[in-house]
Write a structure and sequence with these properties.
Layout (H helix, E strand, L loop, with lengths): L1 H11 L1 E6 L17 E6 L13 E5 L7 E8 L4 E3 L7 E3 L4 E5 L9 H4 L2 E2 L3 E10 L5 E2 L17
Antiparallel strand pairs: 1-2, 2-9, 3-4, 3-9, 4-7, 5-6, 7-8, 9-10
Length: 155
């Protein structure tokens, strides 16, 4: 009985996630490579697809539905974003979509490769670093200044 309740919590509320990738360096895994960050993924917080610019989210890969990826939300629906190597220099994010990127440009398979991502692919929001203990902290939304979206009224 206890195991089934834990399974339910893991699949619907929160779960730990081992971050072995460098795409969000230096925000995640900033130091030695032998210790990877473990983050807490909160499924409940995105139940209504409510995310904000700067959130770190996990999502189903648009290119491989068997894979989960973790990225930072750069732009929301209606925003205009200047891309980094995408087929179009500027993209207006369609309704029901977001633009996600890794912080470590050039080492991240993200929207610059596959374009805007459907909100339906959202899996969870990373809310805390759980491991290693010296890095325990709440993750705050942070948008790098150079990645602030453009808006149509600024063009």
């Amino acid at each position: 009985m206890l195991i089934s309740h834990f399974h339910s919590v893991e699949n619907h509320l929160v779960e730990p996630f081992f971050c072995s990738v460098t795409s969000l360096w230096p925000s995640l895994n900033p130091g030695e490579r032998q210790v990877s960050d473990v983050v807490l993924l909160n499924h409940w917080s995105i139940r209504n697809y409510e995310v904000q610019r700067g959130d770190i989210v996990s999502l189903v890969s648009p290119k491989n539905p068997e894979q989960k990826i973790i990225k930072r939300v750069i732009a929301l629906e209606g925003d205009i974003v200047k891309t980094i190597g995408y087929k179009n220099k500027y993209v207006k994010i369609p309704d029901g979509h977001i633009w996600v990127e890794g912080d470590h440009h050039g080492h991240s398979f993200d929207s610059n490769a596959f374009g805007p991502v459907s909100l339906g692919l959202l899996h969870a929001r990373a809310t805390h670093i759980l491991w290693p203990p010296r890095r325990w902290q709440k993750l705050q939304p942070m948008l790098p200044p150079e990645r602030t979206p453009l808006h149509s009224d600024q063009e």
